[in-house]
Amino acid sequence: MPLDLAIDGGFTPRHYQMPYMAAMDAGCKFACWVMHRRGGKDRTALAQACKDAFQRVGLYWHCLPTLRQGRKVVWDNITSEGKNLIAQTFPPQLVRRKHEDEMKLELANGSIVQIVGADRFDALVGASPVHVTFSEWALTDPRAYDYVRPILRENNGSVAFIYTPRGYNHGYKTLEVARRLPGAFVSVMTIADTGVLTEADIALERAMDMPDELIRQEYYCDFSVANVGAIVGRYMSAAQQQGRITPEATWEPGARVVLSGDLGYRDAAAFWWWQLGEGGFSLINYDEDTGLDATEWIARIKAHGIDIAHVYLPHDARAKTMATRHTVIEQFARAWPCSIVPRSGLQDRINAARIVIPHCRFNEVACSRGIDALRSWSFRYDEERKVFSAEPDHNWASHGGDGFSYGAQMVRELIREQVIATATEWDGTHYPFTLEELHERCGFSRDRRM
C-alpha cells in the first residue's frame, strides 16, 4: 500500500519539493537537485526514501561528506517545528528497531534506512544499497559515487545528488552529466524559485557582513563564484578559462619530472608529477590512496612508467613508525634522489601554490581527482561565527592540496626569478632553466638524498 507521508510520515512537501518527489515516484534512477541553502533538501530526500522503502524492500543510504556531519545535520537535527528530523520523518509506527550507534533504522517492512559518511565508505564494504542520496555532494569526496555506482547498476537502484554549488568542481560536472542523461531529474532552484527567503532576508544577510560572493553561491546557486572559502579556487578557475586544464599536458619521454607528495596511511597519501617545459610546469599525473605503506607506494609510482628525477617529501617523511625500522624518506631514497621540503608555515605553502598555479598546465584526465581537490581545497567555515578560519578544512580535498603546495614551495623561487627578469631577458614563452638548476637554487644537488 502506498505510504501517505502527510499522515504516516508527518511530512507535507512544499510546491517546489514536489517535482523531485514526483520524479522519484515515477522511477527516476538519476536525480541532480541543486538548491539554495535552507530549502529543505535533506528533509525532502529522507521523506522520499521513506516512501520508496515501503515500495521496495532494500537498503537506503543518506550520505553526508563526513559521518560526523551525518549525525549533526540529519540524525540529531531538530526541525523548525521543534521535533527530531528522523523521528518526524520516520514515526514509531513505521520503525521496527532504531540503532543509535549506527544511525540506522529497521523499518516495519524489513527495509533499512541508514545515515552514512563518505569519509567512512571503507567500513561499508559488502553492503548493497538500492538507493543512495548524496547530500552536500559538492563537498563530498567524489570517489564515494564511484564505489556505489556498480552496485546501483547491478541492482537497478537509484541515486540522488542534492547540494548547493561550490564553484566549477565535481558538483558542476554532475549537473552537466545529468542535463545530458535521458530520464534524469535535473533542477536548479534559487530563492526566486522557492520563495523560502525574501529579498529582505538577503538584505539582512548583507547587513550582517555576509560577502556578496557567498550570497550568490548559497542563495542564488551561482557556480561562477569560485567556491567561496576555496584556497586556490579562483586560480583554478582562471586555469580552466585560459585553457591550461587540457588533455594535451602529457608526459614527454626524456623530459625531467619531479614528484611532490603528502603522506598518509590511515589518511590518504597524494602525489603530483611535475614536468618542467615551455611555459612553466605541466602537472602530468596524480595519484592518491589510503592504507599503503612506503614500499607499496614506491612500487605503485614506478608502475606509472614515468621517469622521476627527484622526489620532494614533507618533513614527516623523517618519522619512523612501529611497523618499520626505516623512515619514509630512507625507503624512497633507495628508488630516487629525495629531499625534504623545508618546514614552513601553512600560509607560506598556500602563497606558494597561488604563485605557481598561474604558471601551470594540468592534464585534465590523469590529474582529474587532483584538479577536483584543488578546486575544493577550502578554509574551514565557522557556522557559529559565520567566518572562515585560517586553517584548511581537513577533508578529502586537503591531501591533494597539501601535496601540490609542497611541490609549489620548491619551484616558487624559479617563478620569482623569471618574473624579475621578464622585462629584459624573457619573452614569456618558456622558462630557460634545467632541473639541475632547480635543485641548486632550492638548495639540493641532483644526487643529494636527504
What is the topology?
Blueprint: H1 5-9, H2 18-25, E1 30-35, H3 41-53, E2 59-64, H4 67-75, H5 85-89, E3 95-99, E4 104-107, E5 112-117, E6 131-135, H6 143-154, E7 158-163, H7 170-180, E8 185-189, H8 191-194, H9 199-207, H10 212-220, H11 233-241, E9 245-246, E10 257-262, E11 269-277, E12 280-289, H12 294-303, E13 310-313, H13 328-332, E14 338-340, H14 346-356, E15 360-363, H15 368-376, E16 379-382, E17 387-392, H16 396-425, H17 435-441
Helix pairs in contact: 2-3, 11-15, 14-16, 15-16
Could you walk me through the main structural features you see in this protein, from its secondary elements to its overall organization?
By secondary structure, the chain is an alpha/beta fold. The chain is 37% helix and 20% strand. It is built from 17 helices and 17 strands. It has helices spanning 5-9, 18-25, 41-53, 67-75, 85-89, 143-154, 170-180, 191-194, 199-207, 212-220, 233-241, 294-303, 328-332, 346-356, 368-376, 396-425, 435-441, and strands at residues 30-35, 59-64, 95-99, 104-107, 112-117, 131-135, 158-163, 185-189, 245-246, 257-262, 269-277, 280-289, 310-313, 338-340, 360-363, 379-382, 387-392. The strands form 3 sheets. The protein has an 8-stranded mixed beta sheet, sandwiched between helices. α6 (143-154) links the parallel β6 and β7. α2 runs parallel beside α3, α14 (346-356) packs across α16 and α15 packs across α16. The protein is globular, with a radius of gyration of 24 Å. The relative contact order is 0.11.
